[in-house]
Amino acid sequence: MGRGLVVLFAICLLGGTFFTGAGIRKTASNRMLRREYIQSELGWKQELAEGVDEEAVRDRRNQLLTENMEFISLERQIYFDTAPAKGTARISNDSQSKFYCQVTVVRDGTGEVLYESGLIGPGHYIEKIHLKGSLKKGYYPCTAVWRFYSEHDEYVGETAGKIVVIVIN
Amino acid sequence: MSRRKSIKLGLICSLLSLLVGFSAWADTKGGATPRRNGQTEVQIGVVVNYMEKLRLVVVEQETQKPIPGASVEIYIPALARYVLSGLTDENGVCELDVACNMDLSSNRIRYRVYKAGWHPYPSIGETRLKTTEILPVITVYLHKQKTGGNDSNAFITPVIIPRGSTAAGKPSFDGMIESLYSIPDFAVWLGNRNSGAIPKTGMEGTVHYWLLGFVFFLMAGGIVWILLKKDKESNEGERDLNSDRRE
What we know:
The complex is a heterodimer of chains A (about 170) and B (about 250).
Chain A: H1 2-38, H2 43-50, H3 54-69, E1 72-73, E2 77-80, E3 87-93, E4 100-107, E5 113-116, E6 124-129, E7 138-149, E8 155-167
Parallel strand pairs in A: 2-8
Antiparallel strand pairs in A: 1-3, 3-6, 4-5, 4-7, 7-8
Helix pairs in contact in A: 1-2, 2-3
Chain B: H1 3-26, E1 32-34, E2 40-42, E3 51-60, E4 71-76, E5 81-87, E6 93-99, E7 108-114, E8 118-119, E9 123-128, E10 137-144, H2 207-246
Parallel strand pairs in B: 3-10
Antiparallel strand pairs in B: 1-2, 3-6, 4-5, 4-7, 7-9, 8-10
């Protein structure tokens, strides 16, 4: 009886420590996240931390991203003579763009990342790209995901568009 | 010049122009593609468009008026989340690029549409595109949030979407949409890419941890109390026994 109670005590002590630790960790991460949003250079993040209606803030953020989408471009059909060859993608981030961007091309069928760019500053472009992996001759529906970052590397949001990668031979 | 000479000259000129013309033509994109085995495959310069525009029209359920500024997101299976693709314009239209004209086993487009103050929030739908047909126009219906009621938690019956084109924002019924459903989804997060919403306070979402920790510590305390009580009782028992023996 006495030994059983000691074991139960140990379990309760461990459980209590675990959940209290989890509580402390979550509280700390909440505070960090809130501080990050309060100190953010993006207006919508500050509004969110201030407790402005989340749906309205989300609309404003999306508006900002959609406006910026006008200044970025990518070929909708990217041709490659062979999979290891270069293809003309014409990824561009116009000088009027407010954000830095990074493009990832994901193959819809498998989820494989076919291309990942570095950070492209406003006024810069990438003419030709290499594919990762070895694709056979054919066409591959893909999604281009654009991730936007502010001047101080703060993540702003992401947008996506469908493209097709075509390997000729 | 004799007739024979002029025929010869004509032949030479034609051959020369063919040579020059072919090399120039072969240099253009899609004109001639050299093969690895040394042969040349000549393709006729027909541009095949593998991308088309899928039109989404977002309208008010009762009045059929277009809703501008609604966010349209598409589902990216590889990322397992919806990503913003655009906003509707003043006609309530948002055009999405989709793959077409190719033999795909499945060309499923999953999307969700939402706008602050409108329900369902978000409206989720999907369509399976057929390869050779004209792309459908998808009409998404939203309705104004009712004041006073808990509309966001209400079960939303599937919205039956009229099929067909919506030229000038007015839907007709002769198009094709395979499936479309609307369900309430409360997981439209705005926070970090992979996390949830921004907590209003540092304590938000931590109460259950603290509570469970407190309960466990309380139980541990209870056990200690029982053990101490038992120890005290046994000590008292021993003391009584010793005093009995002394007597």
